[in-house]
From TrEMBL:
PANTHER family: GLUTAREDOXIN. It comes from Raphanus sativus (Radish). This is Monothiol glutaredoxin-S2. The keyword Cell membrane does not apply. NCBIfam families: GlrX-like_plant. The gene is LOC130509377.
Length: 102
């Protein structure tokens, strides 16, 4: 978990994903379309990906991907990100984290 803590503090938005996951693709597209430029870690392509996936499960991410962190805090998966977007909270959260300058 220490590895995840370090990784999520390096950028305002971090997404743990798998290259074959359609929900991960949807979340990445949404955040990139806003201009957030997230750090994306494809767990099926990075070294220690399986270890990171297990740590995300221990943090409460179920399923493990997509797992979105904004401002160093776990937001959740696709459902949580879409809910934040629909209720108008996502963009202000991205701005507070320094991911958007508009």
């Amino acid at each position: 978990m220490e590895m995840i803590t370090k990784m999520v503090l390096e950028r305002p938005v971090v997404i743990y994903s798998k290259s074959s996951c359609c929900m991960s693709h949807t979340v990445k597209t949404l955040l990139c379309d806003f201009g957030a430029n997230p750090a994306v870690y494809e767990l099926d392509e990075v070294s220690r990906g399986r270890e990171i996936e297990q740590a995300l499960l221990r943090l409460g991410c179920s399923p493990a991907v997509p797992a979105v962190f904004i401002g160093g805090e776990l937001v959740g998966g696709a459902n949580e990100v879409m809910s934040l977007h629909l209720n108008g909270s996502l963009i202000p959260m991205l701005k507070r984290a320094g991911a958007l300058w508009v």
